[in-house]
Amino acid sequence: MILRLALLGLLLGLVLRPHAFVWMFEPFAPDRSTAIYDRASLLSLSLNHLALVAAASLAATIVAVALAIFVTRPAGAPFRPLSRTITNIGQSFPPVAVLALAVPALGFGARPTLVALFLYGLLPIFENALTALSTLPPRTMEAARGMGLNRWQRLAQVELPLAAPVILAGIRVSVMIALGTATIGSTVAARTLGEPIIAGLLTNNTAFVLQGGLIVGLFAVLIYDAFVQIENRLLDRRRKPVARKVA
Amino acid sequence: MIEIDHITKTYGDINAVDAVSMVIETGTITVVVGTSGSGKTTLLRMINRLVEPTSGEVRINGEPTHAVAPYLLRRRIGYAIQGHGLFPHQTVARNIASVPRLLDWPTDKINARVDELLSLFGMDPAEFRDRYPQELSGGQQQRVGVARALASRPDLLLMDEPFGALDPIIRARAQDDLKEIQRKLGSTIVLVTHDMDEAIRLGDRVGVMDGGKLVQYAPPEDIVERPASGFVANMVGDAERPMRLLSLIPVGDLTEDGAAEGAMLPDTASLRDALSACLWTGRDAVPVERDGAQIGRVTLAAIRHRVGQHA
Ligand SMILES: Nc1ncnc2c1ncn2[C@@H]1O[C@H](COP(=O)(O)OP(=O)(O)OP(=O)(O)O)[C@@H](O)[C@H]1O
Ligand SMILES: [Mg+2]
User: Fold this and answer.
1) ipTM of model over 0.85
2) For chain A, which terminal residue's Cβ has fewer other Cβ atoms within 10 angstroms, N or C?
3) Which of A239-243, B56-60, B305-309 has the weakest average pLDDT?
4) Which residue has better confidence, B165 or B171?
5) Distance CA B179, CA B168 (A)
6) Closest residue of A to B101, CA-based?
């Protein structure tokens, strides 16, 4: 918990008061005046970065979960192999290639980046949702049918809640990938935390690279941790194997 | 009344259930007993259409089950699944309340019903209501599974080995409770088990299954006294037969005028109890009472004669 707060403090400091960290980055910069990236506010870059990741992951979640639900219904079962192939292709395209292909169609900026992040996010969520929905405890499913829950009630009240922790783990993986991949978006002029990194690479200024990288890394650690906490909370009581003694 | 009419279920080229017909009277307990794989579960699941029959039909009060949407049919029929099948993500209370919620009962009525059922099964509502299934013992999970099936007071209750995970003492009590609940509510119960003792103890009628076929369907006395085949006789157990028979006959049936020494037995006790009392205390006869007054006696000779009729 203390570590978590410390990391959060460091992150807020880096984003809100970058100039307080001159001492930290100075050794890596050509001179003191260029130790801190100030061509754009790190706060606005961070917010933009997160917004891109959130939008892409949300869209990927909706599409991937809907697809997984569809192919685990009797009507959708024939499409299962096909849907796997499609999401796998999304994953195996290098992100730079996706960007390069998307720019002519969508122009520079946030849009091609969104497309790349979206395609990248599909597979982990789809795979997890598919696994979770097709390995539900058969007796529980049978009981749900036996009690007279109709298809939608079974999906909403039994299948999705039971699958939720595994689906959430898929979303976590997908968000992690998106956080990192979004930095590449800067090459097509999307405003992300890739900006200081690329600027640093172009001007041989390691300080910029470190700043961008550090901020992305800290976001990743904290968001990962938040996901794991939610997943554990969902699983917490379900998994407890022995009776709790109530005084 | 439930009429099962030449119902067959074929998987590949085996008949899991093979042209079974039986009539189940309203307000009775019917127990289907058989070895593992004999088709008991399949038969039971065809009643609420969890399995669609390959041929034949089931009628409930004259209405064919295939005329009703499956999920509506199932809400009217309680179902306690083999191995409980509780929802791991819901509390005990929510599990039990599943069907009443589907039927839109008001919340306070649901809560009262949950507490009533938990108490009935010997589980303190305050302690167990908010637990999750994983926080219960196997026997407790099974009782919650049965409570869930009873929750909406269905007229028809299907139970698939509901007492399998219970130890003998709790099991006997759960069986007595079930019988009492059934008498009180007048519900119709079809129960599946592989335990002949349970079948004889609970069933108004017992159906014996072997390889998908219903080989005998009769009151428990007939199953014990006149098994239709070697298989049924084997299920009943040759050495156990006299005892099983005696446990089904009340002392009242053989009570005759006359005196006897020692502790009295009520006329509702079984002949098995009477025999045991004779042997244990070295008597040739036991006095029989009703409402505290002696009404006669039952003799060892009469018991022996009763068993001898079918030996
Ligand atoms: N979905 C299925 N697909 C193929 N075969 C099945 C299926 N369900 C049951 N069977 C077969 O049908 C037969 C009867 O099975 P059923 O479950 O009705 O037996 P049971 O009497 O309930 O046994 P147990 O006491 O072990 O529960 C078995 O041979 C089983 O393998
Ligand atoms: Mg079975």
Assistant:
1) no
2) C
3) A239-243
4) B171
5) 16
6) A149
How much distance in Å is there from the Cα of B66 to the middle of ligand 2?
A: 23
A247 three-state secondary structure: coil
Task: List the structure tokens of B34.
Answer: 């058989």
For residue B81, which residues of chain A lie inside 8 Å, CB to CB?
139, 142-143, 146
A146 and B135 in contact by Cβ < 8 A? no
Question: Any CB–CB contact under 8 A between A135 and chain B?
Answer: no
Cβ–ligand 1 distance for B193 under 6 Å, the answer no
Residues of B in contact with A243 (CB under 8 A): 131, 135-137
Judged by its nearest atom, the ligand closest to the C-alpha of residue B45 is 1
- Residues B178 and A37: their CA atoms lie apart, in Å, by 76
Query: A19-23, A243-247, B85-89 — which one is most confidently predicted on average?
Result: B85-89
Residue A118 lies in a domain: yes
Here the CATH number for the domain that contains residue A157 is: 1.10.3720.10
Mean pLDDT of all residues belonging to chain A: 87
Amino acid (one-letter) located at A92: S
In a domain, A13, yes or no: no
Instruction: Please give the tally of structural domains in chain A.
Output: 1
Q: Is B67 part of the contact surface with chain A (CB cutoff 8 Å)?
A: no
- Is A17 contained in some domain? no
Flag whether A120 is in a domain: yes
Q: How far is A60 from chain B (nearest CA, A)?
A: 26
Q: What average pLDDT does the segment A240-244 reach?
A: 44
Answer yes or no: is the C-beta of B34 below 6 A from any ligand 1 atom: yes
| Cβ within 8 Å, pair A243-B135 | yes
Does ligand 1 come within 6 angstroms of the Cβ of B152? no
Which amino acid residue places its CA nearest to atom 2 of ligand 1? B11
Token match 């009776």: residue?
A243
What pLDDT, on a 0 to 100 scale, did the predictor assign at position A246? 41
Interface check for B190 against chain A (CB to CB < 8 A): the answer is no
* B253-263 pLDDT, tens digit each: 889 998 888 88
Q: Show the domain range for A209.
A: 39-246
HSE on the CB side for A74, CA within 13 Å? 1
Instruction: Give the C-alpha separation, A72 to A61, whole Å.
Output: 16
CA distance A183 to A209: 11
